[in-house]
Amino acid sequence: MGKDNETGKLEWRINVEDGTSERLDPPAGSGLSRRVAVWFKCLVMNRFVLGTVASMEKAWRIGAEEPTKVVHCLKVGLALSLVSIFYYMRPLYEGVGGNAMWAIMTVVVVFDSNIGATFSKCINRVVATLLAGSLGIGVHWMAAQSGSGEPLVIAGSVFLFASAATYSRFVPSFKARFDYGAMIFILTFSLVSVSGYRVDKLIALAQQRVSTIAIGTSICIIISMFFCPIWAGVQLHHLLQRNLDKLADSLDGCVAEYFKEKEASTQNEDEDMNKKIKGFMCVLNSKGPEESMANFARWEPAHGSFNFRHPWKQYLKAGASMRRCAYCLENLTICINSETEVPDHLKNHLREACLKLSSASSKILKELANAMKSTTKSSSMDFLLFGMISAKQELQERLRTVPERIEKHEEGEVMEKEGGENRRSMHEVLPLATLVSLLLENTDRIQEIVRAVEELSNLAGFKTGSQRKSDTKPNNHH
Fold first, then answer.
1. Pick the residue with more confidence: 278 or 28?
2. 3-state secondary structure of 414
3. What's the average model confidence in pLDDT over 185-214?
4. pLDDT band at residue 365, thresholds of 50, 70 and 90?
5. Helix, strand, or coil (residue 463)
6. What is the Cα–Cα distance from 368 to 452, expressed in whole angstroms?
7. How far apart are CA 111 and CA 97, in angstroms?
């Protein structure tokens, strides 16, 4: 709000994006109604501008955090642009019988974010279309031979095949790989068999539909493989590697947070520590993505270090063992957030042994993550396992000496517990005892992870560090 230099009256202005201000002329009417209208207009414009800016910032942040999403969007646009040529160019349009729109629809429904998912949908769509089209033509021929019973034959065949295909979608093993194909089979068979009752040139129509679907799937496969390829197998491999790192950081963070000294810390340090501790939650929520990526990875051709018969199922076993470890870490956070105060002398007695065991355990997880990253077998795993087992035994020895500790009385006198009886209530000791038992249990679960990852490296043919160095050594023979 400002004052007009010419009239000396108050006027309303609003700042716009280019840095200038816009004058708002109040509508005719009473002074109160004019002010209400001006305020309403200012509110609407400000909210629109702020909402637009916030949406643009959110979209930019999503693209910056995951560039693969931007790449996928560009690839979909390129595929649709190429397939639309069949619709724009008259010779190509007439060559597919005016059904070029089916190629565009195919690109929209089968192009996915990774190569495995795109392959899966393309193969399912082509095979299901061929099978359903052939059966539809066969049913149409049988119905034509039946004379007046043609509608009954068609209706009965639709009921039979549609019911069988729908039932197959409830079988877990079939649903995981061929659910999309079963749906396309039902759709195509129903269209071909029912439309054949009114269409004369059914075979020509089926050929045109198959050709347009083949064009659409071919363009999707070529673009997904040769333009910034995104492999489901590589995504799964990197997901397990990141989960191992998060488990290691979360384990270190949980134990360090429990035994830390009571001193003031900044808000940023607390936020970083909380984020580090809660890394195990990503592991707990990764079951669905792992199963989906493993399913799509089976459809992909050999690429990089992943051959055609790569042991993708073993990735699921390794992921399951990681989640069992993450459940232990989830219970550790409950100990951290417990409001029960544990006696300081007990925490001090077990602090060093617990920190040593968590450090040895996290080193194993980080070593496994590095081995996954370089697709090699770890050469120091036996040494790290020995260190973790030694730290576990040391913590168990510390637990045996807890009842024999000597307490200092408030007056400074030294008083030994008689008969090793624990004078502290169980309520005070329970959080610490729970944390120690979880750390000991976690070592067994980490050994399960080691066995799963080692089995994966053996089945996948990962090389040792020395073998990889010899492979990369330059050849000096002339």
1. 278
2. strand
3. 75
4. very high
5. strand
6. 11
7. 24
Tokens of 397: 């020895």
Q: What would the two tokens of residue 248 be?
A: 């290691």
Ranges 113-122, 222-231, 251-260, 381-390: which has the least confidence? 251-260
CB atoms within 10 A of CB 91: 7
Give the whole-angstrom CA distance, residue 422 versus residue 428: 11
3-state helix, strand, coil in the chain (%, to 5): 75, 5, 20
Q: How far apart are CA 169 and CA 296, in angstroms?
A: 17
What fold does the segment set 232-260+267-402+426-464 form as a domain? Methane Monooxygenase Hydroxylase; Chain G, domain 1 (1.20.58)
Q: Checking DSSP bridges between strand 463-464 and strand 376-377, what pairing results, if any?
A: parallel
pLDDT band at residue 476 under the 50/70/90 scheme = very low
C-alpha 353: how far from chain center: 36
Q: Which residues of 92-124 are buried (b: 16+ CB within 10 A; e: fewer)?
A: eeeebeebbebbbebbeebbbbbbbbbbbbbbb
CA distances from 141 to 136, 186, 203, 211 (A): 9, 19, 11, 22
- Of 138-152, 205-219, 223-237, 264-278, the one with minimum mean pLDDT is 264-278
Provide mean pLDDT across the span 165-183.
89
Q: Where are the domains of the chain?
A: 2-65, 68-226, 232-260+267-402+426-464
Q: What is the mean pLDDT of the chain?
A: 77
Phi and psi (nearest 5°) for 21? Answer: -120, 145
**At 206, is the pLDDT very low, low, confident or very high (cuts 50, 70, 90)?**
confident
| CA 385 to centroid of chain Cα atoms | 30
From the CA atom positions of the chain, what is the Rg in Å? 34
Cβ–Cβ under 8 Å, residues 398 and 353: yes
Backbone angles phi, psi at 24, to 5 degrees: -105, 110
Tokens of 454: 């080692």
> What single DSSP character describes residue 147?
G
CA 16, 20, 22: angle at the middle one, nearest 5?
65
CA-nearest of 387, 254, 274 to 327 is 254
